[in-house]
Amino acid sequence: MKCLFITLGVNHAIGGEERFNQRLLRSLAEFSRNPGVEYRAVVVWDTLAQAAGMSGAYEPCSASKSKAVARFLRHVLLWRPDVILYGHILLSPLALAARLLGPKSRHLLIVHGLEVWREPFRRRVPLWERAAVRWGIDEIVSVSRLTMERMREAYELPVAIFQLLPNAVDVRSTDRVPSAEARGRGNILTVTRLGKLSHYKGCGTVIRAMPLVLKEFPRATYHIVGEGESRPGLEALARQMGVSGRVRFHGLLGDAELERMYQSADVFILPSKGEGFGIVYLEAWKHGLPVIAGNQDAGAEVVTHGHNGLCVDPDSPEQIAAALIELLSAPHRAAEMGEAGRQTVSEKYSHEVFRARLAAILQREDAPVAAVRSWGAERA
Questions:
Q1: pLDDT tens across 211-265, in order?
Q2: Would you tell me how many other CB atoms lie within 10 Å of the CB of residue 242?
Q3: pLDDT value of position 370
Q4: Domain coordinates of the chain in residue numbers?
Q5: DSSP state, residue 136
Q6: In this structure, CATH architecture of domain 187-349
Q7: Which CATH fold would you assign to the domain 2-168+352-379?
Q8: What pTM did the predictor assign?
């Protein structure tokens, strides 16, 4: 089997999509150890410096769209891949050209969240995007059922062409998980990008909830790890709410520093409204932390309320405060939730589970080839 993967970024940034792509490439590299299995990857945004340590099958294009398209089409024409994976909806139009150059390939589009939900960016799907998906893509691989359902509705697609491939993290038996007694210092943690479009992550609502939390836990501290354009506004909000001394912004941290933040935290919180999956919940569980997620996005699909975390209204400071107080008040109960989350990761979201799911998708013998195109023709 030959697999060609084209995506926007792998190492150029730190985020859920990039980490998904890293794991997908790692899995493809592991598959390629078997005779007859090969893969190649064309990455639009990554630079040569960011390609350090990657295999020769990984081709960074340094944000040159023309270079990426040329390399991709050359591989399709000369290498003749059996399966082509498109890592973002913006790359789906390439499938129309690839069909002419390699008519025997299967074309799979990977989707994550907001880029195909159309909310809050665009209410209508562009015609070129709809045509590319319907006439160029055979199957759609979604990281969550929520993203699948929202894309299916937005693009008017049949459910049969969707497959699920959730995110994953590495869990080792040697990972150190602090006991409930070692925690209990009132440390609340969020790890996320603070981009200009990241208001849906809910950091501002957590800051608004802090006065209520501090009434019960005066020593509680909200730690935010991440950087971006929205940070100044969040800092101003903390001052406005009178909690700036109890809200600490750490910016981007290295692996060792981030590990220490997880080890010293009592609760992880990301009451988002726009998570297509929420890989940070898995990271928190890996460290034995209970999580608080929003109940309006895929967080409620990943987190089982009352078992490995709590799901709250992301627009309600009162609900967020109540959830934080509940977990901070009962450290042993919080530790039980964190352990349940760690078990959830081991059973459902480990690298081994991800790799097995990906193998099944790539080797699928009953793949509905041309399902989208034929369905589109019927609609027309």
A1: 999 999 999 999 999 999 999 999 999 999 999 999 999 999 999 999 999 999 9
A2: 11
A3: 42
A4: 2-168+352-379, 187-349
A5: H
A6: 3-Layer(aba) Sandwich (3.40)
A7: Rossmann fold (3.40.50)
A8: 0.91
